[in-house]
Design a protein that fits this description.
- The chain contains 4 helices and 4 strands; from the N terminus they run ααααββββ.
- It has 124 residues and is an alpha+beta fold.
- It folds into 2 domains: 3-51; 64-124, no CATH class.
- The N and C termini lie far apart (57 Å).
Length: 124
């Protein structure tokens, strides 16, 4: 039985199937947890668990935070992982921040200015 049929059998509606289809294993674990807890409506409860980034499911390893291995003392951004790239104080929203290209090497450092120009952040 495929994932869609499994959810239809449990009474899920189409929007719930679409919402849960991003990670089928996590969705089925959330449904199993909802049923284990004995809730009246397991599919909506499972959606709540599924959307909670801190919920891992019984017996599943906890996920790792993404930027913990980055050096906290960066000469360019001071450990904030974001760097000031423009400071046009005469304009509304003239201050623009972008991911630091020094300590966030894999981040997309493109940004749009308040004037609508596209730039790539570079260390200065």
């Amino acid at each position: 039985m495929n994932f869609r049929e499994e959810l239809l059998k449990r009474g899920a509606r189409e929007f719930q199937i679409v919402a849960l289809s991003g990670d089928e294993d996590r969705a089925l674990a959330a449904i199993a947890e909802a049923e284990r807890r004995g809730v009246d409506n397991p599919i909506p409860y499972a959606l709540t668990l599924y959307d909670d980034p801190t919920w891992t499911g019984k017996g599943r390893p906890r996920g790792q935070a993404t930027n913990l291995s980055v050096e906290r003392e960066c000469a360019h951004c001071g450990g904030n992982r974001m760097a000031l790239v423009t400071d046009e104080v005469l304009e509304l929203y003239g201050e623009t921040w972008a991911p630091c290209i020094v300590c966030n090497k894999s981040a997309n450092t493109e940004f749009w200015t308040a004037r609508g120009s596209k730039f790539t952040a570079t260390p200065q």
